[in-house]
Amino acid sequence: MERLQKVIANLGYCSRRHAEELIKEGKVLVNGQVITELGTKVKSSDSISVEGNILDNNKNYEYYLLNKPRGVVTTTNDEFGRKTVLDLVISSNRIYPVGRLDYDTTGVLLLTNDGNLANKLMHPSSNIEKTYIAKIEGVMNPTSIMKLKKGVVIDGYKTRPAKVKVKSIDKKINKSIVQITITEGKNHQVKNMFEAVGHKVLKLKREKYAIFDVKDLKVGEYRKLTFKEVAILYSLVNKK
Questions:
Q1: DSSP string, the chain
Q2: Annotated active-site positions, please?
Q3: Band (239; pLDDT cuts 50, 70, 90)
Q4: 129-209 falls under which CATH superfamily?
Q5: pLDDT band at 80 (very low <50, low <70, confident <90, very high)
Q6: Who's near 61: CB < 8 A, 6+ residues apart?
Q7: Which of 3.40.50.300, 3.30.1360.120, 3.40.190.10, 3.10.290.10 is the CATH number of 2-55?
Q8: Which of 74-83, 183-192, 199-208, 230-239 has the lowest mean pLDDT?
Q9: Over the stretch 116-152, which tens digit does the pLDDT of each residue have?
């Protein structure tokens, strides 16, 4: 038997403090009954739902952070026989990547078998920030920077405003290093955004996804997320 708020947090729905608030607000049900008393204890066999979302107290969810290398596809299998991210992360469960990175793009990638969290993270309404470092052809000028910040049209769709910062410019070789943060995740979006303002992306790395970076992971390495990290992700996607 464990306290209800602790179980909710351990299942990764939200932080323990937020769980306590939800309990007091009458948004948590155990076996179909509304629970408002903090400290209520539950069994692993009990059915728990929070804000209408059923939590599986018996499900063995796993969450991983991978520093994706170049030359690896972000799919569960590849028709051309190329190496996938699932060849790098060893799990006894059927996990899958949260979103995708291009074949030649490196950096932060989350993987899980928690479909509820994955779907919420990938939905545009969650506004999850994704930060990339791009090496591009040409020298970025203020006009192009402003266009990216305000949003550019790609494939008939105007992108959301982005955060853009030029890290360095090398006029001799006509190259720039640019940091860009977006809250969407459309196919090839970052590359297409730069091309829309006249710059080809030569190299791309996702250096941050929400709260995560891969500074402590070598290329190709991965680690499990902590309960606290999963709770933070849930708090990001469930915030009002």
A1: -EEHHHHHHHTTSS-HHHHHHHHHTT-EEETTEE---TT-EE-TTS-EEETTEEE-TT----EEEEEEPTT-BSSS--TT---BGGGTS--SS--EESS---TT-EEEEEEES-HHHHHHHHSGGG---EEEEEEEES---HHHHHHHHH--EETTEEPPP-EEEEEEEETTTTEEEEEEEES---TTHHHHHHHHTT--EEEEEEEEETTB--TTS-TT-EEEPPHHHHHHHHHHHH--
A2: 102
A3: low
A4: Alpha-L RNA-binding motif (3.30.70.1560)
A5: confident
A6: 11, 12, 112, 113, 114
A7: 3.10.290.10
A8: 230-239
A9: 888 889 988 889 999 999 999 999 999 999 999 999 9
CATH code for the part of the protein at 63-125+212-225 = 3.30.70.580
Provide the terminal-to-terminal Cα distance of the chain, rounded to the nearest Å.
31
Among candidate residues 70, 65, 125, 69, the one with its CA nearest the CA of residue 95? 65
**Tokens matching residue 59:** 């499900």
Higher per-residue pLDDT: 159 or 31: 159
Dihedral (CA of 42, 48, 51, 56) sign = positive
